[in-house]
Amino acid sequence: MTAAVASFRDPSASQQQQQQQPPALTLPRAQFAALAPRHFLAAHLAPTSSSAGGAGGGGGGNNAGSVRANGRAAHAFRQPRLHRGSLTHAAGSAVVRLGDTAVVCGVRPEILRVADVPNPPASAREALEGICADEAARLGLLVPNVDLATGCSPAAAHLPGQAPSALAQTLSARLLNLLHASRLFRARDLRIAYTPPLAAGDADDDAPETRVVAYWTLYLDVLVISLDGGVFDAAWLAVQAALSDLRLPHAWWDPDASAVLCSDDAERAWKLQFRPATPVVSATFAVFEAKEDKRQDKEWWVLVDPDTFEEGLCKEYVTVAVEGAVNGRSGPRIRKIEKSGGPMVGKTEMRQLVDLAASQWQHWRDALLEPDSMNEGK
Amino acid sequence: MPGPVAELGPLHRVDGSAAYSHAGYNVLGAVTGPVEAQRRDEIPDEAAVDVHVRPATGVGSIKERHLEAIVQSTLRHVILVHQFPRSLVQVSLQVLSVPDTSLMAVPLSSRLTTLALLPALLQTAMHALLSAALPLSTTFTSTLVCVTRGADGGGAIRASPDPECLADAASAHAVCYSAGGELLMDMSEGDFDVDEWDAAMGVGRRICCGEKGGRGGDAVMRDEESESLQDKLRKLVAER
């Protein structure tokens, strides 16, 4: 557009310019990226590969030195920033930003009465003694839901008024699996128990039995405001931050009203007690191959925390969820590994990826412990 | 526990089909394609792969969408999609039955509903693709292993665990290996470290691809048949 204006003003000058330029086809950066995205990214990762015959940097997937199109090194994460308590009407909430990905999560607690459960998981006594440890999974006490908001990305897939897309449903399912696999807090904290008072006529050797009358159910609604890759990691951090922000009111069983009552006394509201090894860090990795034809030229890179542009070019993904500091007794504990879409990441690469994910643990922990990391800096 | 049983081509009105049953999971798979794709589904330079998973009871939910996404990304790698641009390969997987755990004291965890089902779905899809004679870059086989931790802290790896063993295990791993022994898919869940994961992958690979390239000596596969899943697949196709 600007070139056309220039030629209109001063045709002789622009002609001179054209003659001076070499005849080779040169394109502005944005056009190159739009026309040949794969070559664009490959040229960033291995600027010398065309002259060095494909030997420059690729091949092993462990080339930490290459710089990607977005300016990050191949093994550089985007550091999360978060803000808690943003939503007034949610019991716990958090906004997480991971680069240009922005996610908000709100927790809404509800009370599930045991009498309303069609098939209670176990007798009340078993439940209290912790025999049925997986009651959170069996009763569905944690209900994550991911909503990809209209306009969260330029892709036309997120239109209003439609059924949740396959991506949104898959993200919800993955969050649910990781919530149960990671066991951030004890499920029995979600119980509301009742011990009947000792009746006057009873013998003192027969203490009244404590029974579970209800459970807290936590609805975790995740709204993706802006989508630029790494959405699962951002959503998972938002869920953990919102759960750590959650304050549940003191609830008790009132036998006279035959109902569970909640106290509005803020002093008696309580927070979930997380395990000390938390947070559980989730890290996504994508495998980028320079050539789309498989088995020809095995030049490939592992891109850490890919953005949307890179996700469009990658087919193999690995998501690792780890906990605990790096210098643990025998390496980090892994809670989940999801790998699909290709054969590139094998045993040796996976060890490296687990270590990379564990290196993020301190950052996530700091972000969760600090009051607000979103207001400071840019 | 009896080994897996597969049948090629039980359905007659689709391009390829397979019935597969192993460890209480029965899955029927059908492949149609390559057929003309709808405008909104078609990809200019490759075939779209469409996977539908139907549960044994009820209608599909987010769990099925997740399974579909995993199976789809694995199949897309294996099918030579660039040979059929702008077309569609449709894979339908109907779960016929899952092990009845209503009388067992096992929690209804995602291990049981997702990880244990995944190998059966992938195996069925592979058999159905072979039955449809679609051009593939390689074949794959899939299995489930779990790591159990004894009271002394020592770990043992169990192949094809039953639901009770799966519920007690420290970690569960659904793996999928190509015929060349490359790890195509891995869904691991639980509490484990890299070394345990490595050992579990080794056992999974031996079940899928046999001894070649793997190291022997672990007393894990004693109760299993020595024939790998890849050998079984090859034999089944040769018979046909």
TrEMBL record, chain A:
Superkingdom of the source species: Eukaryota
Subcellular location: Cytoplasm; Nucleus, Nucleolus
MF term (GO), any: mRNA 3'-UTR AU-rich region binding
Region ranges (Disordered): 1-24, 47-68
Keyword terms, alphabetized: Cytoplasm, Exosome, Nucleus, Ribonucleoprotein, Ribosomal protein, RNA-binding, rRNA processing
Main location: cytoplasm
Name of the protein in its database record: Ribosomal RNA-processing protein 43
Gene3D superfamilies for this protein: GHMP Kinase, N-terminal domain (3.30.230.70)
Domain spans labelled Exoribonuclease phosphorolytic: 77-249
GO biological process, one term: rRNA catabolic process
Gly residues: bias regions: 53-63
UniProt family annotation: Belongs to the RNase PH family.
A Pfam short name: RNase_PH
Recorded GO CC terms: cytoplasmic exosome (RNase complex); nuclear exosome (RNase complex); nucleolus; ribosome
TrEMBL record, chain B:
Spans annotated as Disordered: 213-240
Superkingdom field: Eukaryota
Localization terms from the record: Nucleus
Keyword annotations from UniProtKB, A to Z: Exosome, Nucleus, rRNA processing
InterPro entries, per database record: ExoRNase_PH_dom1, PNPase/RNase_PH_dom_sf, Ribosomal_Su5_D2-typ_SF, RNase_PH
Domain annotation Exoribonuclease phosphorolytic: ranges: 7-135
GO terms under cellular component: cytoplasmic exosome (RNase complex); nuclear exosome (RNase complex); nucleolus
A Pfam family of this chain: RNase_PH
Protein family membership: Belongs to the RNase PH family.
Matching PANTHER family: EXOSOME COMPLEX COMPONENT (PTHR11953), EXOSOME COMPLEX COMPONENT RRP46 (PTHR11953:SF1)
Protein name (record): Exoribonuclease phosphorolytic domain-containing protein
Taxonomic source organism: Lineolata rhizophorae
